[in-house]
Amino acid sequence: MTLTTILWVDAIEPSLPFWVDALGFSLTVSVPHNEVLGFVILQKENIELMLQTWDSIAADMPAIGAETRGTSASLFLQVEDFEASVTSLKNYPVKVPDRTTFYGMREIGFTAPSGHLVVIAAQSPQTPSAS
Prior knowledge:
This protein is an alpha/beta fold. The chain has one domain (5-123): 2,3-Dihydroxybiphenyl 1,2-Dioxygenase, domain 1, CATH 3.10.180. It has helices at 16-22, 54-60, 62-68, 82-88; strands spanning 5-9, 26-33, 36-44, 47-53, 74-78, 94-100, 105-111, 117-123. Strand 3 and strand 4 (47-53) form a beta hairpin. The two termini are 23 Å apart.
């Protein structure tokens, strides 16, 4: 079984540097819609993420297109190298300052160009992992 998140966005192109250049995802599928990207699949290791524009979803599934506008999601991305991930995202706004949680995760949250919160996290070396 797999679960893939689809983020609905105003435009895909502004999000690609965040996901592809900064976080190292590969663009594996792209589908145009009205002369711009309407849908993409991004992949890194065993993570798959889809981005679809509001216009594309409304054209593809008119019954839900209007209902989805205004919905939101945030992503929690656990990484191996916290410092490298934070450095790669240095040009993006920090929404949640660097912190260590009570459950032992070091986290920092960035605002992706789409407006979604993406929390980068790694197990804090000071706290043993929960097993």
